[in-house]
């Protein structure tokens, strides 16, 4: 029955894919990134119902005024910025040390004990690369399109997998 369990995640992805286009964009995203005041107010009404949202809107406008002078950096610019190198090194060490804590999983998988540290290091490096890659993609395409595309791709792959298992 593991194939039924596997198809359940595809069903959840399909449901999310169907309903996601009916939800509005995030009001802070619309105001701060897209600079769409009317869309922000419309999204607030759609999410929270009828009411007066001027205090929330004013808070977002204050946040926009505060962040107006700051430049939004992409991942590569953050990596080049020398002032954040100590924080990045700390995060990298945390990521690597967390991977070393998962050595028991590789022992359970019956891997040779001599290669377990290298496998763990490879997993953590691939996670780091995927974090950098995904952050860059999110900046370029936006979250909504990536969510829809990811759910669609997951649903299609699971349908193909289920079909191939049945045949």
From TrEMBL:
Keywords: Membrane, Transmembrane, Transmembrane helix
InterPro entries (UniProt xref): GLUT, MFS_dom, MFS_sugar_transport-like, MFS_trans_sf
Compartment(s): Membrane
Pfam family, one: Sugar_tr
Domain Major facilitator superfamily (MFS) profile: 1-167
Keyword match Transmembrane: yes
GO CC field: plasma membrane
GO molecular function (one): D-glucose transmembrane transporter activity
Protein name per the record: GTR9 protein
Organism the protein comes from: Motacilla alba (White wagtail)
Gene name as annotated: Slc2a9_0
């Amino acid at each position: 029955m593991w194939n039924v369990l596997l198809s359940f995640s595809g069903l959840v992805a399909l449901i999310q894919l169907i309903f996601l286009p009916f939800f509005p964009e995030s009001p802070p995203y619309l105001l701060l990134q897209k600079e769409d005041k009317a869309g922000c107010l419309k999204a607030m009404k759609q999410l929270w119902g009828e009411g007066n949202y001027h205090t929330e809107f004013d808070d977002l406008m204050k946040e926009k005024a505060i962040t107006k002078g700051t430049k939004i950096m992409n991942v590569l610019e953050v990596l080049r910025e020398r002032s954040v190198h100590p924080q990045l090194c700390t995060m990298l060490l945390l990521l690597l040390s967390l991977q070393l804590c998962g050595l028991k999983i590789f022992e359970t998988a019956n891997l040779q004990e001599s290669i377990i540290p290298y496998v763990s290091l490879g997993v953590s490096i691939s996670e780091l690369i995927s974090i950098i890659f995904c952050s860059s993609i999110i900046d370029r395409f936006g979250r909504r399109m990536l969510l829809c595309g990811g759910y669609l791709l997951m649903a299609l792959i699971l349908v193909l997998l289920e079909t191939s298992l049945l045949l």
